[in-house]
Amino acid sequence: MTDNHNPRETSAVRRPVGIFDSGLGGLTALREIRRILPGEDLIYFGDTGRVPYGTRSHETICHYAVQDLRFLLSEADCKAVVIACGTVTANALPLLQSAFSVPIIGVIDPAAKAAVRATKNGKIGVIATQSSIASGAYDRALAELEPEVSLISRACPLFVPLVENGFVDPDDPIPLLTAERYLADIKASGADTVILGCTHYPLLKGIISKVLPGVALIDTGEEVAHALKTLLDTEEPAEAGTGRTGDVQYFVSDETQGFAAAASRFLGLDITSKAPLGEVRRIDIEAYSGILNP
Ligand code: DGL
Questions:
Q1: How would you class 61 by CB atoms within 10 Å of its CB: exposed for 0-12, middle for 13-18, buried for 19 or more?
Q2: What is the residue with the minimal CA distance to atom 2 of ligand 1?
Q3: What are the two backbone dihedrals, phi and then psi, of residue 106, each rounded to the nearest 5 degrees?
Q4: Residues 253, 288: contact at Cβ < 8 Å?
Q5: Which tens digit of pLDDT belongs to each residue from 257-293?
Q6: Any ligand 1 atom below 6 A from CB of 131
Q7: Which positions ≥6 away from 35 have C-beta within 8 Å?
Q8: Most informative mutation of 27, 31, 51 for ligand 1 (most atoms within 8 A of CB)
Q9: Integer Cα distance of 145 and 142 in angstroms
Q10: 4-60 pLDDT tens trace
Q11: pTM for the whole thing?
Q12: 221: CA distance to ligand 1 center in Å?
């Protein structure tokens, strides 16, 4: 498969960074990218019509990921693309990197590096979607970086629906009991560092910290934002230091009405403000070719 995208004309000097996720979770990465690289123009695509990806097959996730990336590259001449999704990174990063010429970074390597830096006792936990854990991608990334590290991983399939439905209050017994059940083995293992391997999970930080007090929590969004900065500093002209605030465009594959309020939660914005996000546009993602409809 080769990439013959035909980007629409964008600014002559500024090229945006594309970011995509299966839905809203990737906004936690966008928030960190805005904080660390405020001058960059960003284009976000959330596949809200087909979320969740984390329970789907490897083949379906790869198909969706190719369509998502094709959409971003047809919309703009992106200078880099961030896969703001643990599930897509775990399943499709090598495929996307071999099929498209744009620099693409995922969330797993940056998070694994941060975890290896953070651990003092060499015991690291990883929590993520079923598909991410089943792929073994976190195990491979950590083993490559530090073979001596011992890893305990756990799929937490109820975390995404809890976050999507706003069950994120650390005093709420429903997410707290769920977290206690999911995290029991990691707690018993004595891991001092846990990778939040899904971009939805930073919203559960308060709850996870309550169950795992004193454990360092690695936020994939924050780590990928640093990795993007390194990439732009070395390979592409970054907008850092220009004093400008970049534009953000949002695209989704389902209705836009509920998106702004839900997205504001992920971005930590004031949802009572009239236009907290700006414009959100809906696109037909099935119009883009993937591996199942080449
Ligand atoms: N944001 C996705 C991830 O980081 C989780 C949501 C999903 O299952 O699609 O893995």
A1: buried
A2: 85
A3: -110, 180
A4: no
A5: 878 778 887 887 654 555 456 678 999 999 999 988 8
A6: no
A7: 225
A8: 51
A9: 5
A10: 444 544 444 689 999 999 998 999 999 999 999 999 999 999 999 999 999 999 999
A11: 0.90
A12: 12
